[in-house]
Amino acid sequence: MKNAAGTSGLIMNEPLLWERGKKGRKGMSIPEHDVPMVQVDSAVQGAGPDFPDLSEVDVVRHYTRLSQWNFGVDTGLYPLGSCTMKYNPKTNERQAATPAIAGAHPMLDDEYAQGTLKIMYDLQQYLKNITGMAAATLQPSAGAQGELTGMLIFDAYHRSKGSKRNKILIPDTAHGTNPASAALCGYKPVPVASNADGVLDVETIRQLMDEETAGIMVTNPNTLGLFETNIREVAEIVHAKGGLVYGDGANMNAIMGIVDLSKCGVDVMHLNLHKTFSTPHGGGGPGAGPVCVTKELEKFLPIPHVLKDDDTYRLDWDNPDSIGRVHGYHGNYGVLVKAYSYILTMGADGLKKASQLAVLNANYIKEKLKTALYLPYDKPCMHECVFSDAKQHELKITTLDIAKRLIDYGFHPPTVYFPLVVQGAIMIEPTETECKEDIDQFIETILVILEEAKENPEILHEAPTRTKLKRLDETLAARKPCLCG
Ligand SMILES: *Cc1c(COP(=O)(O)O)cnc(C)c1O
User: Fold this and answer.
1) In 3-state terms, what secondary structure has residue 213?
2) CATH topology for the 355-477 domain
3) Which of 246, 307, 380, 468 is deepest in the core (most CB within 10 A)?
4) What residues does each domain of the chain span?
5) 89-99 average pLDDT score
6) pTM surpassing 0.85?
């Protein structure tokens, strides 16, 4: 291999600040006092926290060194893709930090909040355009909360029809949050097996859908990175029995400006602004999971809802059919601003191009690696491709070994052992921002590792070998984390 993305080298050890500090060290010099000294009450004096004494350079080096132990999308290609964190243009952070926006008080009366309300109103319009749906709410603060909002809307809809339904169809390629959200609303998830092509089977749906079933939750593209080609027929079957179709749109990165979800028969869907629309969310937050619905379901959306009368924006609370509030104030406002900024800076053509490139990059990787790694569904994929370690079984090399060895070469491992329908899954989502040279380097690295697997399998079992810490007992590391480096 010409050049690995990473080498070992100047990665510093770093003690805790308490070990680094030394009594009497100071972070800054302040002028001599010019007022008489006063003895502070000893009870107060002794009550302070046990902070270490440190110089400025101690602190700067400490945090800079810690930051160098991390790998992020600003460091290199991150094959976990939009699902975890794609590269987000920095300008969107700047817009969200604009003092007039970041400092706006959430309890301002509408007349003093016209700008912030306009951003919300326009963002709702953009999301409606992008998805093809009729109405939107920005309140939910994550994909899973969007799903919960959607399920509450399903429930409100069925109750409005006087119909009692207690089950919901969930394909085995759906995201794990789908059955959990449905169960929270009292629906019993009914698993639906996907067919040999990795997508929903029309006949299976026809057999399972009945008048006790509230509808179906479809992740599209599904977690195998495949487009649900039978979605329309599936929707027709579900609708014919009075059910609704929920579209999990967390994977919009593959289909922005390309697929009109309303034409696919989707009634309710969410988007993950923190995945597709420019919010860094590594480590679990922050997020926003706006929900879009058809005209018929608009009245069930959470309140308050931003409306526009002539040129004036206002929060509308007057909606007796609403499921109520699902978030305090205006949702996760900073995330909404980043999405607004991202959509405006990309434009309609730019968003479509981003999806096209995300899909192209994933298919390129799929084609380049499919002889070396087992590809369970050999057909065009969307924004991600899913391999497995089946070809490496006879060498006793597993997905985990390959993932850990990637770290030695300076790459973050991809998603492993998910989706569950593929044993030993290796899911790669490169996203749109990676150039061909970086993708080629990633591909070459995997190929080198798979050669090593044949010639020197031991090194893969031991990997990572070039990191500060070697292979950890993952269960122990999760249960009893040692945070002192
Ligand atoms: C990430 C994801 C979710 C859940 O979104 P959160 O914001 O993490 O709650 C749901 N569905 C799919 C397909 C996802 O990728």
Assistant:
1) strand
2) Aspartate Aminotransferase, domain 1 (3.90.1150)
3) 246
4) 91-346, 355-477
5) 95
6) yes
